[in-house]
Specification:
- This protein is an alpha/beta fold and 308 residues long.
- It has two domains: 218 residues, 3-Layer(aba) Sandwich (Rossmann fold), CATH 3.40.50.300; 59 residues, Alpha-Beta Plaits (2-Layer Sandwich).
- The chain is built from eleven helices and 14 strands.
- The strands form three sheets. A six-stranded mixed sheet has the order 6-7-8-3-9-10, with helices on both faces. Strands 2-1-4-5 form a four-stranded antiparallel sheet, covered by helices on one side.
- α10 runs antiparallel to α11.
Length: 308
């Protein structure tokens, strides 16, 4: 069952088309990666999904019905990249206040806030103000206020920003738990390596357009380049063959690229026929970062990702 469907959505700002005819669906309980460099249209798209902006054309369907911001807001948790917290307010009171805005009673809101604060070891922060928190502490608070009302759809825009590795892993584990318990999660970032760890399905945006859509596995299969890592101790000059080219040579392994009409079995048979011991044989799959750079090679977006 699809929780969210976006169909042919467009959004203009003056003469700039920020979102250009984008369509996709998100299954219930999945972790969906919305990727792209800064300025790709990710935040604009998220703001339309949450009802902050209205699309100029196209349709958004939520839980099988046309999306209505006022009616559906209680079922969405949105953690924006920029901080959305009141700096002068004590964080315990603030978390309860935000939970009540989502429809929880004061008693229920207080119980859930205490539960999440205990889970994240935030109890001692209760009377601190947001302005007194570090960036990482603010990020943990913002995550808690996003998910504590148990929304059907959770939108996380750069949720690991400012977090140290320990707290990043803590948030990552909670994301997996939320999905396992039935929440649907949109994870927006420009950090491709995080997406490979977390997401089931991705779309990739550039300049407001969708340029890639699929599962992590299917995308990598589509862009793989017949490159294999072979654990073997031999010299490249001893491997004259039409079956593959040696891309990289190290003392105990080779990186090879198979010829168009060669198969892994052909290569293994070749080594066995030469009595060359093999300790490993693995296909090298491209990273999402490499795939994106390949798709937008020579553009500013590619240069942005090459720095990561």
């Amino acid at each position: 069952m699809n929780l969210l469907e976006v169909k042919n959505v467009q959004k203009y700002f003056a003469t700039q088309k920020a979102v250009d005819d984008i369509s996709f669906t998100i299954e219930k309980g999945s972790i969906f990666g919305l990727l792209g460099p800064n300025g790709a249209g990710k935040t604009t798209l998220l703001r339309m999904i949450t009802g902050i902006f209205y699309q100029d054309s196209g349709d958004i369907t939520f839980q099988g019905k046309p999306f209505r911001a006022l009616e559906d807001a209680a079922n969405i948790g949105y953690m924006p990249e920029e901080r959305g917290l009141y700096k002068k307010m004590k964080i315990g009171e603030q978390a309860i206040y935000l939970a009540r805005l989502k429809g929880l009673s004061k008693t229920e809101a207080t119980e859930r806030v205490k539960e999440w604060f205990a889970r994240f070891e935030m109890q001692s922060w209760w009377n601190k103000k947001v302005e007194d928190l570090s960036k990482g502490m603010s990020q943990k608070l913002q995550f808690v206020t996003t998910v504590l009302h148990k929304p059907s759809l959770i939108i996380l825009d750069e949720p690991f920003s400012g977090l140290d590795p320990v707290n990043a892993n803590l948030i990552k584990d909670e994301i997996f738990k939320l999905a396992k318990n039935g929440s649907t999660i949109i994870f927006s970032t420009h950090r491709m390596e995080q997406v490979e760890e977390i997401c089931d399905h991705i779309i990739l945006l550039n300049k407001g357009k969708k340029i890639l859509d699929g599962t992590i596995r299917s995308v990598k299969q589509e862009f793989k380049d017949n490159v294999y890592q072979v654990g073997v101790s031999t010299r490249p000059e001893d491997l004259a063959t039409y079956l593959f080219d040696v891309v990289e040579h190290q003392p105990d392994q080779l990186l090879i690229k198979l010829a168009h009409d060669s198969t892994p079995n052909d290569v293994l048979s070749y080594f066995i026929g030469k009595n060359i011991p093999i300790t490993s044989f693995n296909e090298v799959m491209p990273s999402l970062n490499d795939i994106f750079i390949k798709l937008v090679e020579g553009t500013q977006a590619a240069r942005q990702f090459q720095k990561i």
